[in-house]
Known about the structure:
Distance between the termini: 35 Å
Largest sheet: 7 strands, mixed
Amino acid sequence: MTATTSQRVYHVGILVFQGADLLDFTGPHGVLSHVSYNNNPVSPEHVFDIKFIAAQEEVTASDPVTVKRHISISDARKSLESFDVLIVPGGPLPIVQGVVDSNGPEYQFIKSFINESKNEERVLMSVCSGAFILGATGVLAGKTATTHSLALDGLKDICQEASKKFGGGDTKVMQARYIDGGLTKSGIRVITSGGISCGFDASLYLASLKTSESASNFAAMVLEYIAPVQ
Length: 230
């Protein structure tokens, strides 16, 4: 089958940092890599091109497992307009808080993605406590969001602080598998998901947005994953 405009490849960046939870970033990678236009797991016509973005060449997850990046943050910033989706994993709260407090390259890259103007809709998605980093940027202001069920109060606090700093209104934080918070003024769809395995659900939802419900369902069937009731 020849690729058409309806069969475009979406470029996904997964931002990985030292101490990130392994399933928070490998889960979405695994789900999206099984989404295809032709529903053929043997010879798939991939929908998503997925890259790990990191400041360091090697990143050790919290588990610990070491993974290699595909592209550096500095190089990714030079081609920021090429990314249609940015996924931000979580990790132990001290690690995530460190990413925020350091105001380092990961935090700055997310801010740049949020502020980058583009003529079409892009997606910013967090998994688990990755929502804390999104909340700190102010992008969750005026939206409904979620995170790990054990960290909901912490997300409320960080969003309140961001609202005082950046404005934009209060964030409604609630428990859910995932939440589509809608579009920002710059045309970014913000999706937050609950803890760890909820990233699978959010990734399947993302797949349905970019392709179809049937393509998302087929990927879930290949994965033999049955999502809990939302």
